[in-house]
Amino acid sequence: MKKYIQGLSLFALFALGQAAMAKQPNESKVTLIDGSWNPGEGGSVTTQPHPLNRPFGVDFDSKGRMWIVELEGGRVHRSANGVRKQVGGDGSKSYRGDGGSLGQATFNGMHNLAIAPDDSVYIADSWNHCIRRIDAKGHITTYAGSGKAGFSGDDGTAAKAQFNYIMCITLNPSGEKLHVADLKNRRIREIDLKSDKVLTIAGNGQRGIPKDGAKATEAPLVDPRAVCSDTAGNVYVLERGGHALRVVRPDGRIYTVVGNGEKGNSDGMGSAARFNGPKHICADPSGNIYVADDVNHLIRKYEPKIGEVSSVLGRGKVKLSKPHGVTWDKGKLYIVDSSNHRILRVE
């Protein structure tokens, strides 16, 4: 126990004391939040106690605490004032704990999480084909999905719906609707958190590239991996195998705004820009979209007002390794650098 407490103290001192910054080509300041710098990045290379194991998603509650989920580690962590604590999951690939406390719960392939204004924590328990919910008192239940792969439940309640590989979930800016990337059903689904009603808002279940201007619910999708929305009501869909970013406008029509389906890593305008196996997205209050471009080991930025894609992180001194998560919180971009087992922040 003494060694454990000492380990946490070292972690706290490290997290609070390490303000080392590294410059990217666009002069962004990068802060290490959890983990270690790599050689040559400008900060101390450290071996921390209780390191993360392939973290995939982060989000923040109303108290400013950072919640972290691991894909391969199978654990849920919460970090406050530089001290990270494991609060759920035991590393097994299983499905236990509903009706009890988060500390007794287990998961199977968590991809990310979203925290609602009432501090309910929603977790994409991907390989259990469901969304788990932790209430403000720390109790866990299955909120959406049955735990078995399938497709059903549109126009009904979330608890009675079926999903097939929920990759990523994201709240809309008002926190009233939860968008769900239902990967193997090739659909984007939406859950109204007030009524618990489920709808499909994009995808017809078929694999294919949607035609620009098509009705989103009648169009195919390649493999919708992640989803987010902006304050104008646009819903963005990221396709990993499609190497593209698409948008569903408020009128329900879908358009491809970045990429043409080919792999690449070039910045540029709209269809001239290239991704390679992108995994996750988020939006800032201005409507800019940030992309974790996994295979390219880059974080990209799409500016809808001008249609341009640029690189935010990964081309300069700081090198990423299969980044998965991107989260915007209080004017800062948080990056889950998954295969480097760390979390970074870009000012």
Question: Biggest β-sheet: count, sense, barrel?
Answer: 5 strands, antiparallel
The rounded distance between the terminal residues' Cα atoms is 37 Å
Strand content: 35-45%
Give the topology string: H per helix, E per strand: HEEEEEEEEEEEEEEEEEEEEEEEEEEE
Give me the Rg, rounded.
19 Å
Mean pLDDT: 92
Count, helices: 1
TL;DR?
The chain has 347 residues and is mostly beta strands.
Question: Can you walk me through this structure?
Answer:
- The chain has 347 residues and is mainly β.
- It is 5% helix and 40% strand.
- The protein has one helix and 27 strands.
- Strand 9 (130-134) and strand 10 form a beta hairpin.
- The two termini are 37 Å apart.
Fold topology:
Layout: H1 2-17, E1 21-23, E2 29-34, E3 55-60, E4 66-70, E5 76-80, E6 83-88, E7 110-115, E8 121-125, E9 130-134, E10 140-144, E11 166-171, E12 177-182, E13 187-192, E14 198-202, E15 214-215, E16 224-229, E17 235-239, E18 244-248, E19 253-258, E20 268-269, E21 280-283, E22 289-293, E23 298-303, E24 308-313, E25 325-329, E26 332-337, E27 342-346
Antiparallel strand pairs: 1-2, 2-27, 3-4, 4-5, 5-6, 7-8, 8-9, 9-10, 11-12, 12-13, 13-14, 15-19, 16-17, 17-18, 18-19, 20-24, 21-22, 22-23, 23-24, 25-26, 26-27
